[in-house]
Every structure is written in C-alpha cells, then in structure tokens.
Automatic annotation (TrEMBL), chains A, B:
Gene name for this UniProt entry: recR
Keyword hit for DNA damage: yes
Native species: Bifidobacterium actinocoloniiforme DSM 22766
Name under which the protein is recorded: Recombination protein RecR
InterPro entries in the record: DNA_Rcmb_RecR, Rcmb_RecR, Rcmb_RecR_Znf, TOPRIM_dom, TOPRIM_RecR
Keywords: DNA damage, DNA recombination, DNA repair, Metal-binding, Zinc, Zinc-finger
Domain of life: Bacteria
Family: Belongs to the RecR family.
Pfam family, one: RecR_HhH
Length: 200, 200
C-alpha cells in the first residue's frame, strides 16, 4: 500500500519541509498550493530563489546582505559615520532600520559566541570591526546583540576587547516591552527594568 | 531611509510570503536560510518546484494527483474495485491511505459545495463519479468529506443524487477523536458520539 506521494510531489513536499519553520503538514499544504497555482507563480518562486542566490552577497564593510558591495547603508553619505551598531544577523539591521530611530552605520557579526554550537569569537566578523575602529571617525559602538545567553556572552567579550579603545561603548536597554503587562514580566526583565529606571 | 531589503532579497521574501501558512517573519527567516544554504540546496528547491509543475497531473479516473494517469491506485489490481471513497482533495486520499484500513478506490471531487466561495456542484468532479457508478462493479460509495458545513452540504447533495442508484451509501463516523477528553468535546460532536454509540 503506497503511503507516499508519487516522486515529484513527494520531492516538492520534502524540499519545503527542509526549510525552517515549515512542518510536514505545512509543506504538504504549500506543495498542493503550488500544484494548483499558475505556472507563472511557480516560475516566479523558482526564479526568486535562484536570482537571490546568484545576486546577493555580503557587504565587504559591514557584512550586511546586499546586491552591490559596499551596501547602500555604508555608501549613504547622509548616515552618521561616528556610530557603529553591532548586530548578530543581517535581519537585525532591518529590525533596527524599521524603528527609524537610528542614523548611524552597522556591523554584522554573523552570529554570537555559542560554545554549544561551536561558534567561537574567531568565527565572527570581529577583525573587520576592529579594522573599522582604527579610524578616528568612530566615536560610539552600540552593542545590539540578542538579549539571550549567547548575545550576553558576545556583549561581554566585545566589552573587554573594545574597553581599552577611546570609544563610548553602549548597549540596548533592557526592560518591559511596550504594551506588555507588568504581571507577566519575568523576574530578570523586571529586575532590569527597575535597575534601568529613568526619572520622569 | 531604506526600510526594504535590496531587490533580489525582498523578491525572495515576497515569493515565500505569498505561500499559504507563511507570514512575513517566516518568509524572512526562510529567505535568509536559503541565502546561507548551499547553492545545491537552493537549486534543489527551485528544481522541485518546476519539476512538480511539469510532471504532476490529475488522474483521468479518480482525480487524484499523479505522474502517470491513471494513477497507481486506480491501476493497482489488488485494490477492491467494488468500493469508491469520495473525498474533497488529493491530500485526503493520502490521509486515508495512512490509516491502512482501506483497500478500495477513490474519487476526488476537487472541493466541496460552498456558495460563499462560489463553488457549485457543477464545479466538482461529480459527472466523472456518476460515469464510474454506471458500471455494476461498484457496490458501495463512502462519502468521506470534511465534517464542516461545506462537507455536510456536499454529503447531503450526493446522498440525494446517488440515493436512487442501487448502491450502499455510507459516510465516515462522527464521534470523539481518539485520545481526546470528553470534557472538552463540543456539544455537536458529543451528540453525534451518543447517537452513533456501538455495543461493546
């Protein structure tokens, strides 16, 4: 009794099930959606994958993803070149851009220190950061790493490394998320919110 | 301030965000996964999409998806040709096959009657079903439609249409899902479980 789909259908389901965040049921749903969709939409998806793989590279300065290196942010003359915001991943650059609160430059490390996943400081784009800091132009480095164990470890590592340099070193504020409920905040977050309290 | 990604990256995110069950954050996550993956995995995904679109067709007899028509189930001489199980979608065939409780044939309607979505009986593969029932070989039709309003409407419609024929007409049992809690069953399901109770 056949309990797998015919070759090409199962291949399609498997290809989607390998992507992050898509389970077997979701992959099946997507596969049937594609089988029922216009030929042009399927072509568009296949083209988008191959075009992105062919065109997208990492910016030689900041490590962000881009089609031309240096990336548009590094090349933008209106950005404040005295501040560098250090993030883990390219998608973090977009998250910070969306706040519209930041006009400086970025530096993408490509991850965070994580001994469990075999990510050592030498696997991160730290030498490139040190190179950029040699110019007197940079006055502040904002460490915007994820507020989890790996991010904290990386922040601590960078603080020690950059501490001796003549720079203002800052990090993102910890506290209560806007729109949240004090009752549901965990103790550590609430503790940080207390420590970091500001005058009104 | 640019708050969208460079062309090819955004195109890739958009292509995935158009698929069912993938939101903007999920699409972004998948896009960055693909950008970081091997060229070969990206190629595999693009190929799987185009190959499936090119190869997959609908079985001329039962309407299931397949690469050769008639499909392997319709062609299998070991299947019981006296029973036809009517389902809404090709994926329902796979769900029933996985139970390993059914050895008959299938008929995929391609949907269920749904006036809100403009699906009339004439949009379903009902003529093909009637054609198959003309042979004296078929003794039973199992209506295995979804237990929701559209499925019920379609079951009722088919019951009236097939009632006059010399056939056993059956439908899937309604009742409590195995492993569930009586306390959390809705009234209609519990009512059906009572009505359909069996002797032990």
């Amino acid at each position: 009794m056949a309990v797998a789909y015919d070759g090409a259908i199962q291949d399609l389901i498997d290809a989607f099930a390998r992507l992050p965040g898509i389970g077997p049921k979701g992959a099946q749903r997507i596969a049937f959606y594609i089988l029922g969709a216009d030929e042009s939409q399927a072509q568009e998806l296949a083209d988008a994958v191959m075009t992105a793989k062919a065109k997208v590279r990492f910016c030689e300065i900041c490590g962000n993803v881009c089609e031309v290196s240096p990336c548009p942010i590094c090349q933008d003359p209106r950005r404040d070149r005295s501040i560098i915001c250090v993030v883990e991943e390219p998608k973090d650059v977009m998250s910070i851009e969306r706040t519209r609160e930041y006009r400086g430059l970025y530096h993408v490390l490509g991850g965070a220190i994580n001994p469990m996943a075999d990510v050592a400081p030498s696997d991160l784009r730290i030498p490139g950061l040190l190179e950029r800091l040699k110019s007197d132009e940079v006055k502040e480095v904002i460490m915007a790493l994820d507020p989890n164990i790996e991010g904290e470890a990386t922040t601590t590592y960078l603080s020690r490394l950059l501490g001796p340099l003549d720079l203002k070193l800052t990090r993102l504020a910890s506290g209560l998320p806007v729109g949240s409920d004090l009752e549901y905040a965990d103790e550590i977050t609430l503790g940080r919110a207390l420590t970091g309290r500001s005058e009104v």
